Amino acid sequence: MFRLILFQLIFATFLIFPQNFTEQNNISDNSRYYEGKSGIDLNLGFYDNSNVTNTSIMTMINSSEVTSSSGGFSGSISYQYWFKNYLSVRIGIGALVTNIENKTYTGIEPIYNFTGYVTTEVATVSSILTGLNFYPLQLSDEKRFLPYISFYAGPYIGVYNKSEVLNTSVTEVTIVETTLGCRTGAGFSVLIGSIFKLGIDFGYNFMGDFDTPIAAKENYSGPDYSMLFGFVF
Fold first, then answer.
1. pLDDT band at 167 (very low <50, low <70, confident <90, very high)
2. How many CB atoms lie within 10 A of CB 151?
3. CA distances from 72 to 43, 51, 92, 96, 224 (A)
4. What is the total count of domains within the chain?
C-alpha cells in the first residue's frame, strides 16, 4: 500500500513540476486562464448507503433496548494543478462514513446475569485517489463556468471499530482492510471573483471486496453527492 501511495505522489509530481511556472504570470487571455494555476477543493456531502438510517426500540419485561444508527456522510479535501487550460491532475484524501450505530440495553434480566450494556459501532471507508479532471468548456474562452468530468483511482481503506461496555467490562474490536478502486464523476463549479469557486459534484465509487467484512459488508461501491468549496491560485 505504501508503494501505491508513493507512486501516486510521484505521478502527480511528474505532471505538475515540469511546467514552466514563470509562463503563468504572462497569461492574459481566457483561453489559457487556468493553465499553470493550482486549486484546493473541499467537498462535503452524502454517500448513498443502504444502511443510512434506522431507529428501533424493543421493550421486554423489566428491560428495554434502544438501537439507533446513521451514516451516509462523505467528505474530501484535494489539490489540483492545471497543466492545460482544459485538463488538471488531482490528488485527494476522502472518507465515506458508512455506519454509526449505538445500542443501549437497560433492565434486570437474571437469566442473562447482567443489568445493562452499551455498544458503539463505527465503520468508515477512506480513500487516497489520484486522477484527472477534464473541463470541456475551457477548450474555448469560457472561464467562469467550469463543468467537468473526472476519473480517479487508488486505494480504499475500510476501518471498523466496535466498543462494548458490559457491566464493568470493556471490549474493543478494530478491523482495517485495504482494497483498490476508482471513482468516475462529473460536476460543475462557478468562479466567484478571481479566487473562490462554488459547485456541485457527484460520482460513483467502484471498489473491490474487502477480505474481511467491514460492519457486515465486504463491498461499499456506490454513488456520492457533495457541495464543492474551493479557491484557485
1. low
2. 15
3. 14, 8, 19, 7, 9
4. 1
